[in-house]
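Notes from the pairing session

We agreed to fold both candidates in a single pass and log them together. This is the raw record for the first candidate, unedited. Please don't reformat it; downstream parsing expects exactly this layout.

Candidate A
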Amino acid sequence: MRSIGGLVPGTDARTVVLVEGPSDRVALETLAARRGRDLDAEGVRVVAMGGATNVGHFLDQLGPAGRGLRLAGLYDEAEEGYFRRGLERCGFGVDLSRADLTALGFYVCVADLEDELIRAVGVAGVRAVLAAEGELRSFDLFQRQPAQRGRAVEAQLRRFLGTRSGRKSAYARLLVAALEPDRVPRSLDAVLAGV
């Protein structure tokens, strides 16, 4: 059987949450587990598409013209156009606004997932997570690099999380675990509440 977005035809998925990459998937799955939800048992699959440019393919394969599954999604602000065009092309509406995308179950991360998590956890909280992982010294050295001087610490943290393969996913899990229940980013909270 051919796998489409990690789904094998004939599986019991009823809802698919389309996300850009593995760190988004990890964040949603971690938050769901924190809330006592078993997405697999509920028939909800979080599918990392390998980038926003692939959304049209996944909508074709999994949406109304394909498997007919219920769809939702999470996307970075800069990638909104890909989601809008993909949803319009698949018949979900025309001239879709951000509010329309939200009504369809697709939520924006401003500016991206890492930015949302850094704001929600706070600089001190992120530094505490880095310290617990033994990476605070590495971050402090990173901040001293010429390209980082003069940048806001939030921007430095965001860049640092993307400097090593697998770090974004690792910290997506750690930062979601560190969130206070009332500080969950709206996009993460809303997409999970809707599925």
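Candidate B (folded immediately after A)
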Amino acid sequence: MDILSQADTTTGARAAEESPEDEVARLRAQVAMLEAERAALWWETNHDELTGLANRRHLNAAGPRLLARTGRCAVVVLDLNGFKPINDRYGHAAGDEVLRTVADRLSRCVRDDLAVRLSGDEFAAVLTEARTGPEPRWPAAVEALATAITEPMTIDGHSFSVTASIGVAVNDGEPTTIAELIRRADLAMYRAKADRYCSNVVWD
């Protein structure tokens, strides 16, 4: 008997010795492993590796579902001011830590809504609203976000501060797409960035 035939025989014998309960447990373990691998792959595909926030791909996929579910939302696009000098002077490691800190602050402000890193030092968020309500909550959320980002941060013994230029596009139930809201918020952000005395601009 050659080695391959012997291995097949051994495997077959082991399988024959398995009880039904053992076989079920083995199959369940295999399924769990495959599901874990699939979940890990989904996470890597839909999230930013540095900050752990959702990425643009996930925004494009989840944004329409959020809009369809609530019908009312505010899309926020923000770009950091003062980040490049930190990155240039103190290196990419310090710059990366600044981005992670901003991402954490964005996540805490957004809470159960969607926080996104678009690219570089540009971030976004989708703030959902109830279909009915006396006043929208997004203005307070945007103000809290701007305030949180400006708080000083200490990295490797150095104190850093950044601010954000913020653009907001609001959908109050009118027919539109998440892509259009992102486009409007992005244009509003550039208007805010062009005016150094204005931290945020709402698309109108």
